[in-house]
Amino acid sequence: MIGLGLIGGSVLRALAAAGHRVLGYDADPATRATARTAAAKAPPAARWQVTATVRDAVARADLAVVAVPLPAVAGVLDQLADAGFSGLVTDVTSVKGPVHQLVGQRLHRLHDRLAGFVGGHPMAGRETSGFAAADPELFADCSWVLCLEPGVTALSDWLELAVLVTGLGARVVPATPEEHDRAVAAVSHVPHLLAAALAATAATDPLAGTLAAGSFRDGTRVAATRPELVAAMCGGNAAAVGPALDAVLTELAGARTALAADDPIAALRTWLTPGCAARTAWPPAPGKPLELPARVETLIRLGRAGGWVTAVADDRRTVTGVRPAPVDPD
Amino acid sequence: MIGLGLIGGSVLRALAAAGHRVLGYDADPATRATARTAAAKAPPAARWQVTATVRDAVARADLAVVAVPLPAVAGVLDQLADAGFSGLVTDVTSVKGPVHQLVGQRLHRLHDRLAGFVGGHPMAGRETSGFAAADPELFADCSWVLCLEPGVTALSDWLELAVLVTGLGARVVPATPEEHDRAVAAVSHVPHLLAAALAATAATDPLAGTLAAGSFRDGTRVAATRPELVAAMCGGNAAAVGPALDAVLTELAGARTALAADDPIAALRTWLTPGCAARTAWPPAPGKPLELPARVETLIRLGRAGGWVTAVADDRRTVTGVRPAPVDPD
After folding, report:
1. Mutate to test the interface with B, among A121, A230, A259, A309 (most CBs of B within 10 A)
2. Domain range summary for chain A, segments of one domain joined by +
3. Which residues of chain A have pLDDT under 50?
4. Is B199 in contact with A275 (CB distance < 8 Å)?
5. What are the boundaries of the signal sequence (chains A, B) (predicted)?
């Protein structure tokens, strides 16, 4: 495990708790010390080791999990190549296209050695950060994207990781890097921009700040996140966030038109109805489990339909998939 | 108390619990039955009566509280006039300009009889609704606007209501109807529109729905509110909501520009900083209590600065006011 922040630390704890042998490294000595102290307090069967270098962490590893912010990913990939790492690599970064590009650019160095790369993204976040906030239960029932690209991803690598991740209780969502980046732009990155815009606008009127209650509190909660984190997340996915923001702006132009209508109440009622139906139907309820062939195209189709994988068969020829249950129109 | 929904029912319960003699009426017989049954179960010292008509409810009342949706307010004001009510009237509607207009249009009928009208708006809402969800503690530490207009509002009426409302543990925020409507457009009505736009946009992609987590959940929570309620609230305040939405759209245009910049991460960091600072400083912490003269202009200035009234002196010549504490720039 390279990087022991909230997500990296939680993956380390979750894997250790699941009985895997885990070694962790973080570039920050203080974080390493915290992780070492915590290891000593963990139950003997769920302990981990903290190493002083990336090389030591991956020396005998089958899998390297890169859990550092996007700007640090390239450096860690180089360190893995320098260390002669020949196992499987995954990451937990919130954008996938740029990471796949970085890996692609390094294939000449990693080539013939690296077993493979499968980009990942657990959709688990908290307002807290750092190893001290790490929680082995963070991934229970969370959606964890594992990326697949026809002709690029080795299916066996993907299934290997899917076994590991479903073992932590997460829902493994298959998606291409491009589809992942488009989806998280809409449901994670754009909400951060709306929250910041709302908070900044309301701050111009002290009376508004005093009258603000539940809808403002909820609608702006993520605006308190450190600007450099949100900027790295949204800016690193700018190509997808731009169009996703445009889609919301187009919706809001409809609200602006409704507000100026002769009967704004009737016009707004019509405008509001699809959003209410969508929010009422969310989160999607799991449908019946299905046995599906373990094929790249089948898995991508499952993810595109909003589905996920809950288990991989021992022979790796089928997976158990779940699609969202149909929504009752009432 | 005319109208026994969530807010009306909670005001009724809170006033009864505070030792006031309260009679309630609701146009819906089932709601009246629920309120009657609940009264029988309340402690004897905190009981209320439920009447079959508006006339019976206000026959010997000093104060009538109108707690019905905006479209029903005019009808209730007419019923109060028909009943020959001569006390003080307040309301709890979420827009104040239109209510003050309705009262103004009826002054020829209410004139010489009515002690006065002071528009009110407790900033307390819940996802639940109806008398069954009513809670006498709903207003503890909540901001409760009582409107003031120079040359229109009788200060003695306003202070009378402020005594009552501070007695329920609420923060009494003085504001003109226009300033109230502008403020709630920014912090209550626009957030509902953003939530609906976000939910509707994300719903077009099932993968997005499955990947949506905390920021989407919070940012869209109020989109599940019934469209007719949100439409009445936003559409009834369309004149203020339009410009408030425009202000957010202008902010978001800045985000769109930042996303298209050569260095979107740096540009977004700059763009995100004011919103983060605003959200981190919210909610405002109370400053030191101040004794202020009970004058219309002084009270309006207090509210405009984000302040509120916590108590009214027995002689009604001063109030205890609180302004938000200055924000530490770090």
Report:
1. A259
2. 6-139, 181-280
3. none
4. yes
5. none
Q: What is the pLDDT of residue A329?
A: 57
For residue B276, the chain A residues in CB contact (below 8 A) are 196, 199, 223-227, 230
Residue B207 confidence class, pLDDT cut points 50, 70, 90: very high
The tens digit of pLDDT for each residue in A40-53 reads 999 999 999 999 99
Phi (first) and psi of residue B291, to 5 degrees: -90, 125
| Helix A296-304 / helix A177-184 crossing angle, nearest 10 deg | 10
Banded model confidence at residue B20, pLDDT cuts 50, 70, 90: very high
Mean pLDDT of chain A: 94
A181-280: CATH topology is 6-phosphogluconate dehydrogenase C-terminal fold (1.10.3660)
**pLDDT value at residue A109:** 64
- Out of B221, B236, B278, name the one closest to residue A199 (CB): B278
Task: Judge: A211–B269 Cβ closer than 8 Å, yes or no.
Answer: no
Q: Which residues of A touch B202 (CB under 8 A)?
A: 186-187, 278
ipTM reported for the complex surpasses 0.90: yes
Give CA–CA dist B259/B272, Å, rounded. Answer: 12
CA–CA gap between residue B203 and residue B216 (Å, rounded): 11
Going by CATH, does the domain composed of A6-139 fall within 3.40.190.10? no
